[in-house]
Amino acid sequence: MIDTEVLDSGLGDADDDDFDTAEAYDSLLPDGRYTDREVSWLAFNQRVLELAEDPSLPVLERANFLAIFASNLDEFFMVRVAGLKRRIVTGLAVPTNVGRSPQDVLADISADAHALQLRHARAWAELVRPELADAGIELVSWLDLDENERAALYEYFQSQVFPVLMPLAVDPAHPFPYISGLSLNLAIRIRNAKTGRQEFARLKVPPMLPRFVAVPGGPGRSRYLALEALISENLRDLFPGMEILEHHTFRLTRNEDVVIEEDETENLIQALEAELLRRRFGPPIRLEITEDMDDVTLDLLLSELDITAQEVYRLPSPLDLRGLFDLGRIDRPELRYPAHVPTTATAFQPAEQNGRPDVFAAIRAGDVLVHHPYESFTTSVVAFLEQAARDPHVLAIKQTLYRTSGDSPIVEALIDAAENGKQVLALVEVKARFDEAANIVWARKLEKAGVHVVYGLVGLKTHCKLLHVIREEDGMLRSYSHIGTGNYNPKTSRMYEDFGLFTADEQVGRDLTRLFNELSGYAIEKKFKRLLVAPLHLRKGLLRQIDRERRNALAGKPAHIRIKVNSMVDEQIIDSLYRASQAGVRVDVWVRGICSLRTDLPGVSDSITVRSILGRYLEHSRIFAFHNNGDPQVFIGSADMMHRNLDRRVEALVRVVAPAHVKELIELFDTAMADTTSSWHLGADGVWTRHSVGEDGKPLVDLQELTMSRIQRRRRARSAR
């Protein structure tokens, strides 16, 4: 018997014949049709930098974007550059979709990264720092201070800094010390006043102390001195009887990618803990130095760290502008974006003032689509889980956890549910990059509370965002489900733009039951009804949807593809979009970060438009919408168009079926793509151009501000009824 429900939804196994025609198009697609992913990533971080350079933005937000740029670039080197170098050194094949050698790609990365870091330093020195000073926030040098200020800071140095400093000498009895990744250090050359012998010492700037030290001053002034500058001016206290010849700041980046052969280990947690320990000692891949460092000191660092001149980045002081995150403590709201308090989604607002909403009743009344951070994560997702944890009719809760905050109410609710006697399953992805240690801690805490904790499938990361609640109602079991595009993390939910769908639909409930059984046991599920699941079905399902639009266009029917993702890299998906464009399908791609898709290929990408939006919130949701001859097929979920998401992760997209929700998602997408909306446009040679001002000289629409005001108006309209 044919499962017509599956076939009609477009989610079933595709007939191999469906793609025969598509494969014939490969010969018509040109070489060089992809932009290198690493070069494209650097272009993304340049867009972040352009926000820091924008004088129309509040100055403390611009400083924050400078810190984000620095943090992004650190991770890029620790993972992407480190991964490329490791594969080259070990002789492994290096994936590249641009037809060039990995060595050439690394050379391009080095050149682009050098240029960007210098531009980043100039943006701080010439644009943001002066504007901060005009607003009464100054980062000063030691020479800018008077005697009283120096005396006050010296007292702070003696009482708070000096006791935790650990100068390490380098001589025959003291080998060159280990330099930890991303630490800020002073390289110091000294001369013994008695013997005349020159020595070298390394001093680590304590990371647990504030990076910028407040200078005592009058009201209305905020003045700060960099911690490394304070230490540098008092080195004589550390080396009494020595002459300080040179001192320079430097910073090392190491390979911090984690590689685990899961099929060769008996205990994933133990193997991961061992690998995290090894991460601390990864090989160096970047050395940042101040522009005034002398050749003698640099040569010593190059020799001892075994690093090449190409990996050296000579920059103006101060290094490590991640420290600008510390300016977030300054209480100057007029120098930030206006405060925004998320609203409670209309469906989850209590019927009576000061009443407690019944989340289950709201979901039973119909699917609920919530848009974070404009609509509150706390009064939707957290409220749903907390109500489930205390509801005596709830029998079981199942949830995936990829990243969550250290004091997460999500984790506490799962613990409460287990202690209340419910069956609780938490699939904790301990391999979530840079959150591995935290996830191990929370996994063990959950286990101690009686939660069934599993770690997913061997060889796959579980990246999908799923929450499934089973409740007994009138002697029957009913499913309540949440499928999201973002992590179950209350902290990042205030900064990340994401969607979440709540539904009591039994098809979704059966899909999640099957999927969780597969994740926690040995079941291999072949069919889902409203879900597209990677790695077995998602790629195939999307290719079918894209090819359907291509066939409709060839038949003279209207055809339109809309895709919003964080990254667009996968060659098979990109080629399918090229083929759709060749057939006349309108293809709109809204991408935040990496995009290997090109828009400048005559006869291939003529119908493809690519936009990028960056701003106050990090665009994080994934939307896939297909015109389907007037019957739109729209999905949201966790997957980007990357090899790892489609082939090496468990991902899930859910089909949105409520007409109002379909309309909302498509309207949001079309507003983002409109020429009247501020965005970056992808053009020839992979160059992104910002369009923020119209031909009349007026600012274009800010999508995030528009969305904020639309949702606020929607809430006011309901309150008025």
UniProtKB/TrEMBL annotation:
ATP binds at residues 72, 496, 592, 620. Coiled coil: none annotated. One of its GO terms (cellular component) is polyphosphate kinase complex. Keywords: ATP-binding, Kinase, Magnesium, Metal-binding, Nucleotide-binding, Phosphoprotein, Transferase. Mg(2+) binds at residues 403, 433. It catalyses: [phosphate](n) + ATP = [phosphate](n+1) + ADP. Residues 615-645 form the PLD phosphodiesterase domain. Its EC number is 2.7.4.1. An intermediate of this reaction is the autophosphorylated ppk in which a phosphate is covalently linked to a histidine residue through a N-P bond. One of its GO terms (biological process) is polyphosphate biosynthetic process. It comes from the Bacteria. Its cofactor is Mg(2+). GO terms for molecular function: ATP binding; metal ion binding; polyphosphate kinase activity. Belongs to the polyphosphate kinase 1 (PPK1) family. Catalyzes the reversible transfer of the terminal phosphate of ATP to form a long-chain polyphosphate (polyP). This is Polyphosphate kinase. It comes from Microbacterium saccharophilum. The lineage of its organism: Bacteria, Bacillati, Actinomycetota, Actinomycetes, Micrococcales.
